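User: For a reading group we're discussing how well predicted structures match intuition. Take Bacteriophage-related protein. Before you show the prediction, I'll give you the sequence so everyone sees exactly what went in.
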Amino acid sequence: MTTATSITVRVPLAIRHRPGRKTVVTPTTDGVAPVTARADPALVKALARAFRYQRMLDQGLYVSITEMAAAERLDRGYLGRLLRLPLLAPDITDGIINGRQPHSMGLSRLMEPLPGEWGAQRASLSRCHAPASLSDRRGEQPPSGSEAPQARPSPKREIA
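Assistant: Thanks. Here is the predicted 3D structure of Bacteriophage-related protein, as structure tokens, for the group to look at:
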């Protein structure tokens, strides 16, 4: 006669709630932040729209961003921010499409102004605790904490 035996395996993990889904996050090892295994749909959709709108401008379907925004029923400011995305470094775009972007990189962070130079983009986005895939492949290191720009105190205003 055989007896049933059970094995219990405990795996430390956390479940993060994101809009429309839940993500399982494993603990960090060796100080490396965990990366998503799946592409963020909002980021991928924004990239797709950005490249589509850029292609429409390149083909001459619209003369200006203002004309395109009116025709596509979009806010001109939103369209202008969206049209900065095709200027991202190719490895950053590839990382977003393949789900290798940092957890902290949401659409709002990506829509903020970024430097035009790809190395500076990598350094700026690496402050979001980016995985190694967003570091410069030529060995360029992002600025250390001592070299990072310091926040300036806001000027005090007196209210009469």
